[in-house]
């Protein structure tokens, strides 16, 4: 379960990767922590994760626009590869991607924070 | 021109580029970083090659912290988007204490901008002192591509294997008794996995694979491997054991002269596995290959699971210490001989009464043919086997201790061609312990018995069966030998016998009492044999480990040469080789000793005449000692 760092130095008011990571992990664990893949429930789970993530990020109170994506994949032995990149203000903006897995499924959540002011 | 809305912003001065020249010239739309020195302040005209878009990083070279002053040089790093003429004013928007972050901004128009930030036309500097290097500014609003965030979940590796199996074609495995060979095969399996790859180097990669244990065993037990191994192992053993002497001096300077005229030890044949704890029961030299010697062995009481009867063929020509052929059977072999007219066959008489035949053409160590265990054949130990006759008409004669003599054809051992009970005077059967045929005679033979009497017998004719009785020994007769040296005179009527009564006696078939008795031994004399080349020589062995060579032309009282074998074990058998140069003895520990007789056994032309005279003397002296002279017999 790793995240990706955008800025090594964080300034006051800038995006904190570690903080976002912890928010995301917590919301995933709370939603699908002990569950097995269930095709009926997957949609509910992704919605729940997103809502929770966004809610927690906004509570941080920073002047950012957030974009959050969530992907849940069943573990069938197939490989899954994803990548993202952005063109933005490298000082103020940031993103964070969190990988999570359990016995039956993978979950990838990406958070993009774009500074407003 | 727009300015920052921050209340702390106040103009510092204008930005002027003073260095970093033409090579930084860029075209419209091209992103290129500008490295150069820009002077802060001053009112003069200044020109800039490109327009700053986004972040500019300014570093004050001369400043130790705080606000840049007029004349300060700031270094810029920026990306050019468009050519512009007016950069604008450098403004400080933050606190100005040394050691703290200061924000500088320079605003300038950006008619073309691609990001929301840059459309504001603001360039913001963040300052911070770094070790006295001055202000380190970082621009705000610089747009750039972020690092690519990648997420990877590799696919699950499916381990697949082929479910079909293919059993290899195997030939019928050889008998279990041949596991003996497996011990020797430790080195050999490597040979099989080496492919013939001289021609195609490409194929070496997939042919040189490790063989599994099963494949190895299959190859080891296949018939073609066994036959290949059987043949090549002999050659290899000989080659390994050979050590020819390159220093040999033919002038004989280095030779020990004295060794030529006495009995000298030549070879010892002993096999750790097959000879140990077994008594040698019989020896025979091969008529076709004078270097081959077969020895038969009794059972090994310490190893009840090993075969009871063993016969080993030894080779004196090569220095290898292992037998040429190893044969065994289920009953102790008490007599053995090469089949004279069948070079590949070895005949054995066993304790159970069976006669077994081994063939060195097959790779089996067990007999290829056996006589039946029936009342029609022998039911007692067969102590004598002999092939007599000619190439075209030959028979295997066997006599057992119950007095039965059987004549067999080697092609068919399922039943004897003729049988005869050897009975003396129609009363009791003769318990035969040894037998011999005079040279050239296929009809008459002599036998020695357990009671100490010797008989002559005939196979065919009106007097078929026991003919004459010769009395003289006081103990069982252990060995009998007819005179066999061929020379100008005929002594074929002579034979010698050895017995438990410590004597060797010389007889003539013409007299029913011994001609002479040799009494030099102090123990049971187990065997005696005439020399095949010297008319007056014979060898005798006794239970004290003594091998005696008697030359009657020299002395009739004591042996001419005598040697005690190492270890002084009882010697059971003695056999001269066909050339008369070697004599082999077998002892009770399973060892075959081969001695060189050297000069002793060379027969000179006058030896025959001398022997005739010796006989006359013997008879004369014998007649003096005894009260009764030997009776002349009609035969």
From TrEMBL, chain A:
Localisation: Chromosome, Centromere, Kinetochore; Cytoplasm, Cytoskeleton; Nucleus
GO molecular function term, any single one: dynein intermediate chain binding
Region (Disordered), start-end ranges: 1-21
Gene3D superfamilies: Tctex-1
Single GO biological process annotation from the record: cell division
Domain of life: Eukaryota
Key words, A-Z: Cell cycle, Cell division, Centromere, Chromosome, Cytoplasm, Cytoskeleton, Dynein, Kinetochore, Microtubule, Mitosis, Motor protein, Nitration, Nucleus, Transport
Pfam family of the protein (one): Tctex-1
InterPro entries to which the protein is assigned, alphabetical: Tctex-1-like (IPR005334), Tctex-1-like_sf (IPR038586)
One term under GO cellular component: microtubule
Bias (Polar residues) ranges: 1-19
Family: Belongs to the dynein light chain Tctex-type family.
Role according to the record: Acts as one of several non-catalytic accessory components of the cytoplasmic dynein 1 complex that are thought to be involved in linking dynein to cargos and to adapter proteins that regulate dynein function. Cytoplasmic dynein 1 acts as a motor for the intracellular retrograde motility of vesicles and organelles along microtubules. Probably binds BUB3 as part of transport cargo. Required for the efficient progression through mitosis.
Subunit text: Homodimer. The cytoplasmic dynein 1 complex consists of two catalytic heavy chains (HCs) and a number of non-catalytic subunits presented by intermediate chains (ICs), light intermediate chains (LICs) and light chains (LCs); the composition seems to vary in respect to the IC, LIC and LC composition. The heavy chain homodimer serves as a scaffold for the probable homodimeric assembly of the respective non-catalytic subunits. The ICs and LICs bind directly to the HC dimer and the LCs assemble on the IC dimer. DYNLT1 and DYNLT3 compete for association with dynein IC (DYNC1I1 or DYNC1I2).
Name of the protein described by the UniProt record: Dynein light chain Tctex-type 3
Natural source organism: Neogobius melanostomus (round goby)
UniProtKB/TrEMBL annotation, chain B:
UniProt WD repeat ranges: 470-517
GO molecular function: dynein heavy chain binding; dynein light chain binding
Localisation: Cytoplasm, Cytoskeleton
Cellular component terms per the entry's GO annotation: cytoplasmic dynein complex
Keyword Cytoplasm part of the UniProt annotation: yes
Keywords: Cytoplasm, Cytoskeleton, Repeat, WD repeat
GO biological process, one term: transport along microtubule
Record Gene3D superfamilies: YVTN repeat-like/Quinoprotein amine dehydrogenase (2.130.10.10)
Residue stretches of biased makeup (Acidic residues): 176-185
Region (Disordered): 1-26, 170-204
Chief location: cytoplasm
Superkingdom of origin organism: Eukaryota
PROSITE patterns: WD_REPEATS_2
Cytoplasm in keyword set: yes
Family: Belongs to the dynein intermediate chain family.
Protein name per its UniProtKB record: Dynein cytoplasmic 1 intermediate chain 1
């Amino acid at each position: 379960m790793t995240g990706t760092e955008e800025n090594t130095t964080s300034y006051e008011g800038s995006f904190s990767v570690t903080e976002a990571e912890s928010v995301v992990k917590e919301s995933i664990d709370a939603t699908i922590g002990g569950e097995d893949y269930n095709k009926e429930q997957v949609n509910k789970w992704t919605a729940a994760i997103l809502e929770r993530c966004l809610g927690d990020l906004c509570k941080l109170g920073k002047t950012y626009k957030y974009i959050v994506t969530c992907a849940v994949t069943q573990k069938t032995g197939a490989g899954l590869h994803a990548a993202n990149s952005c063109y933005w203000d490298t000082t103020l903006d940031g993103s964070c991607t969190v990988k999570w897995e359990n016995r039956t499924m993978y979950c990838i959540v990406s958070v993009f924070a774009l500074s407003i002011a | 021109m727009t300015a920052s809305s921050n209340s702390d912003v106040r103009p510092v001065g204008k930005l002027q580029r003073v260095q970093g020249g033409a090579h930084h010239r860029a075209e419209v739309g091209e992103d290129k970083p500008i490295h150069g020195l820009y002077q802060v302040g001053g009112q003069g005209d200044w020109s800039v090659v490109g327009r700053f878009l986004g972040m500019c990083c300014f570093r004050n070279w001369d400043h130790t912290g705080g606000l840049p002053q007029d004349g300060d040089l700031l270094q810029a790093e920026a990306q050019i988007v468009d050519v512009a003429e007016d950069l604008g004013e450098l403004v400080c928007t933050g606190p100005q204490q040394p050691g703290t972050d200061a924000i500088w901004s320079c605003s300038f128009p950006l008619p073309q901008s691609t990001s929301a930030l840059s459309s504001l036309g603001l360039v913001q500097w963040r300052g911070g002192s770094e070790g006295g290097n001055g202000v380190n500014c970082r621009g705000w609003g610089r747009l750039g591509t972020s690092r690519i965030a990648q997420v990877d979940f590799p696919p699950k590796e499916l381990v697949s294997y082929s479910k079909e199996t293919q059993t290899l074609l195997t030939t019928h495995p050889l008998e279990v008794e041949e596991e003996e060979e497996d011990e020797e095969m430790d080195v050999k399996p490597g040979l099989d996995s080496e492919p013939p790859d001289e021609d195609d180097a490409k194929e070496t990669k997939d042919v040189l694979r490790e063989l599994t244990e099963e494949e190895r065993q299959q190859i080891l037990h296949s018939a073609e491997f066994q036959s290949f191994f059987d043949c090549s192992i002999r050659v290899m053993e000989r080659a390994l054991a050979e050590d020819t002497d390159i220093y040999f001096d033919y002038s004989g300077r280095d030779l020990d002269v004295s060794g030529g005229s006495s009995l000298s030890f030549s070879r010892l044949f002993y096999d750790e596995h097959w000879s140990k704890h077994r008594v040698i029961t019989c020896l025979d030299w091969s008529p076709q290959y004078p270097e081959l010697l077969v020895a038969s062995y009794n059972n090994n009481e310490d190893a009840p699971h090993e075969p009871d009867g063993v016969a080993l063929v030894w080779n004196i020509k090569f220095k290898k210490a292992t037998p040429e052929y190893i044969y065994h059977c289920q009953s102790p072999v008490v007599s053995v001989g090469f089949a004279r007219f069948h070079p590949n066959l070895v005949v054995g008489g066993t304790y159970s009464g069976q006669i077994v035949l081994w063939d060195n053409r097959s790779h089996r160590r067990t007999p290829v043919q056996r006589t039946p265990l029936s009342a029609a054949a022998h039911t007692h130990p067969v102590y004598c086997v002999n092939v007599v006759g000619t190439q075209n008409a030959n028979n295997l004669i066997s006599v057992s201790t119950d007095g039965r003599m059987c004549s067999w054809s080697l092609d068919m051992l399922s039943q004897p061609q003729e049988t005869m009970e050897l009975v003396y005077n129609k009363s009791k059967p003769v318990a035969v312990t040894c037998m011999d045929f005079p040279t050239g005679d296929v009809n008459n033979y002599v036998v020695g018995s357990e009671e100490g009497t010797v008989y002559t017998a005939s196979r065919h004719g009106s007097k078929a069966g026991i003919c004459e009785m010769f009395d003289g020994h006081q103990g069982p007769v252990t060995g009998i030998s007819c005179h066999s040296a061929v020379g100008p005179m005929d002594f074929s009527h002579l034979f010698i016998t050895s017995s438990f009564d410590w004597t060797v006696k010389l007889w003539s078939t013409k007299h029913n009492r011994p001609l002479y008795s040799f009494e030099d031994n102090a123990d049971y004399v187990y065997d005696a044999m005439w020399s095949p080349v010297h008319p007056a020589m014979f060898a005798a062995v006794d239970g004290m480990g003594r091998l005696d060579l008697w030359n009657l032309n020299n002395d009739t009282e004591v042996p001419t040469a005598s040697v005690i074998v190492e270890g002084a074990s009882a010697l059971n058998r003695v056999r001269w080789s066909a050339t008369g140069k070697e004599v082999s003895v077998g002892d009770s520990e399973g060892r075959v000793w081969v001695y060189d007789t050297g000069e002793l056994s060379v027969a000179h032309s006058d030896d025959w005449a001398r022997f005739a005279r010796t006989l006359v003397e013997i008879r004369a002296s014998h007649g003096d000692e005894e009260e009764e002279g030997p009776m002349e017999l009609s035969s």
